[in-house]
Amino acid sequence: MKTRYLLLAFLILSVTSVFVGVKDISPLDLFHLSDEKLQILLVSRLPRLISIIIAGMSMSVVGLIMQQLSRNKFVSPTTAGTMDSARFGILISMLLFTSASPLQKMLVAFVFALLGTFIFMKILERVKYKDPIFIPLVGLMFGNIVSSATTFFAYKYDLIQNMSAWLQGDFSVIMKGRYEMLYISIPILIVAYLYANKFTIAGMGEEFSTNLGLNHKKIVNIGLTIVALVSALVVLTVGMLPFLGLIIPNIVSIYQGDNLKKSLPHTALLGVVFVLFCDILGRVIIYPYEVSIGLTVGVLGSGIFLYMLMRGRAYA
Amino acid sequence: MIEVRGISKQYGNKNVVENVSLQIPTGKITSFIGPNGAGKSTVLSMMSRLIKMDQGEVFIEGRELSKWNSNDLAKKISILKQSNHINVRLSIKDLVSFGRFPYSQGNLTKEDWKYVEEAIAYMELTDIQDKYLDQLSGGQRQRAYLAMVLAQNTEYILLDEPLNNLDMKHSVQIMKVLQKLVREWNKTIIIVIHDINFASCYSDYIVALKDGKVIKEGTTDEIIDPTVLKEIYEMDFEIHNINGNQICVYFT
Predict the structure, then answer these.
(1) Is the pTM of this model over 0.90?
(2) A27 touches chain B (CB under 8 A)
(3) For site-directed labelling of B229, which of A27, B3, B106, B129 has its Cα 20 to 30 A away?
(4) In chain B, which residues have their Cβ closer than 8 Å to the Cβ of A213?
């Protein structure tokens, strides 16, 4: 897959995304926009596009970093309890501050996501049986335990409905004023890119890093902080995008290798294209209604994930 | 100059390394030999800060190991461990370029790339330099890692069983490269090695370890001796001089 084709797909899908929807806006309308249509574009369609781009990029890149640092191809925010912990954090913030501001929610979610990810990494250190498929199963179990705690408290305090909004990713709720926090992701992703070389080296193991004078622990901590921060942001604004951080980096790894400096931009781009595609699919499949992005990404993603499991035992 | 003063390491109640003191001769190949579990690799790891020692000190050019900045140390001393079961998809070229990390922090200059190319050529990997590590044979991978260490261009090179996975041709090739590095570039090389005849033919100095202690050390001639070897390995050796090489025969 050449970058050129990916960019082309990205452009076509972006334009399509802006002009697909219940309100009919065609590209030709751009030259004589009515106020109403302009409003729809600015309040709904463009924010949606931007949030898709940022969320798609973020989750894929974060998955890539996790796989590199844990040295396991099947570890991602979905399969390591990061997402579930972030959701737990959101619930706790709603319980603590009755009307939590988005920023408060974000911070609590971040702290929980970070904690959850660290706990998973600690478990990973302890597990003697480093089977590539066993590890993500442990992660999924851990995530489910956290998730059941979330459900329990949500049920007890009558917040089930509220929480389900964070269960499945959904771009249809994205509107001007409700997604801007996602922008915080962009500088974080830039930092991730600057650290790409160090993440690659850290992924080669502690001894390998030490030999090159790199502080392995510090790099892993920076990486996991980035992962937790970005996951918290995405869960809070868009919701869960399952499997994205798992399949995109794996596909890119096959044709680009694991040198993050090279593969990180590809991963970001492919992630965006994939989410754009899923989003448009979800919007046209039962038009004029919508299938939420969490569902389309989940269905397509788990299919690809299964395929990778079948072919990839030796390679992972 | 590397000086080891009374280093020890315990795992649980077991002394893996006990009060080891050494002075590594500069500009020579020094081999660590000894039975399995003698603590050779552990000593090597402690000398290069990969493992913390419980007691003792290691001085590199007169400065204690913990006083060194890790990045500066990475320009002085490099270590390659035998655990190369990493199956990341990195090309040989990418891997070797990481050897320049202590100098460039990842932004390689033209000069850095020159070192990378030279190291790849030195290990005869130029034709396959764009292949991924997981596509290589064990021997090719081993050579790729060695090329990375060459690119790191350190005065002291520590290698933990560098001949693992290598056939005879490549084993000899590696040892010759090491000899060349010592003679032409005045490097100091320490290797952990199991094949006694490779140790005999290519090293200048031999340190024999057993049960975590240094039981003998000396020039190659002093150690390659039936009584000394019997004490180390608890088996009989015959030593024959073949074309100027001291060859040990122990297949009784």
Answers:
(1) no
(2) no
(3) B3
(4) 69-75, 101-102
Predicted-assembly ipTM surpassing the 0.95 threshold: no
How do the pLDDT tens digits run along chain A, 316 residues long? 578 888 999 999 998 888 887 777 777 777 777 888 888 888 888 888 999 999 999 999 999 999 999 888 888 888 888 988 998 998 888 888 877 788 888 888 899 999 999 999 888 888 877 777 788 888 989 999 999 999 899 888 888 877 776 667 777 777 777 788 899 999 999 999 999 999 999 988 888 899 999 999 999 999 999 999 999 888 888 888 888 998 999 889 888 888 999 999 999 999 999 999 999 998 888 877 888 888 888 899 888 888 877 776 545 4
Contact between A256 and B90 (Cβ < 8 Å):
no
Cβ A58 vs Cβ A233: under 8 Å: yes
Contacts of B103 in chain A (CB under 8 A): none
Q: Is A303 near chain B, with CB under 8 Å?
A: no
Residue B2 and residue A149: Cα distance in Å, rounded?
56
* Partner B contacted by A131 (CB < 8 A): no
Which residues, other chains included, contact B246 with Cβ-Cβ below 8 Å and sequence gap of 6+?
Answer: B200, B201, B220, B221, B224, B239, B240
Question: What are the two backbone dihedrals, phi and then psi, of residue B79, each rounded to the nearest 5 degrees?
Answer: -135, 135
| Burial class, A125, CB count within 10 angstroms (exposed 0-12 / middle 13-18 / buried 19+) | exposed
